[in-house]
Fold this sequence. Notes:
The chain has helices at 2-9, 44-51, 76-80, 102-109, 120-124, 128-132, 165-175, 185-191, 220-225, 252-259, 270-279, 302-311; strands spanning 20-24, 30-35, 59-62, 87-90, 113-116, 139-146, 151-154, 180-184, 208-214, 229-233, 242-243, 263-266, 284-290, 297-299, 312-320, 323-330. It is of the alpha/beta class. The chain folds into two domains: 2-124, Cytidine Deaminase, domain 2 (3-Layer(aba) Sandwich); 128-330, Dihydrofolate Reductase, subunit A (3-Layer(aba) Sandwich). Strands 11-10-9-8-12-6-13-16-15 form a nine-stranded mixed β-sheet. The protein has a five-stranded mixed β-sheet with strand order 2-1-3-4-5, sandwiched between helices. A hairpin with a 2-residue loop joins strand 15 (312-320) and strand 16. The protein is globular. The protein starts with a helix and ends with a strand.
Amino acid sequence: xxxxxxxxxxxxxxxxxxxxxxxxxxxxxxxxxxxxxxxxxxxxxxxxxxxxxxxxxxxxxxxxxxxxxxxxxxxxxxxxxxxxxxxxxxxxxxxxxxxxxxxxxxxxxxxxxxxxxxxxxxxxxxxxxxxxxxxxxxxxxxxxxxxxxxxxxxxxxxxxxxxxxxxxxxxxxxxxxxxxxxxxxxxxxxxxxxxxxxxxxxxxxxxxxxxxxxxxxxxxxxxxxxxxxxxxxxxxxxxxxxxxxxxxxxxxxxxxxxxxxxxxxxxxxxxxxxxxxxxxxxxxxxxxxxxxxxxxxxxxxxxxxxxxxxxxxxxxxxxxxxxxxxxxxxx
Length: 331
């Protein structure tokens, strides 16, 4: 499933979902990989069917339930039933009303073994749920990394990373799922981040880089250094990478309309997370916590912790060696 996810992340298919599929033999060796390339092209499962010799002993991994309906591509469910495949592992049930469990039911009726590795599609296509529910706003995802005692920054440390290499790798895959990555002004000035994706298998994915800058007019040096960043301000400026979208009451739909962003990952510190939690809501939130303890630096503030504890529910907790990833969704 991980290989199918990575394959899907390297595609641009909007408004269709990114979907990846991998066919393996009985020994777990990969026989074929397929992806959907966008509207009007074959779906990932059809690519597998067209480019493989499928046997009963093979297993197909696909990040989203095979489509039940036929449109510009034939029904993947119907086409799979024409093959000898007997084992399919599905990432998520498709909430599209044209499918929504129908393919799973039909495949099972035809003696295909179905199992799940849930949340694959939710990870790859974070905006898919809002899109299908016709919610016209960007999907917004929060991410924070802390020490065991909730420090987000350590003073006088040459290593700006608190979490381990696995957490960092997951973060870079997470970046590859969104249209834009946002930080606050203080994070930009303190950390000088590149906001790129450093996992080599998805390094060609290039989300938009965004800074919630605010009202500070001392911006000239930064818009020159970070010429590939978009600065959201509360004042007008002649620079092409400044967008005065923070005037008055902030409206997330302005980002959607002006920047064409459907999904946004927020990696800020205390100020930006507090702003988002108080004025908007996160659709989901990722908290990476290290076993390391820090005594000198910036600590995650109580208002943020209280919001997460009262307005969000825990979905999963994943051990990442000496780190833990906790994922949340809005209640």
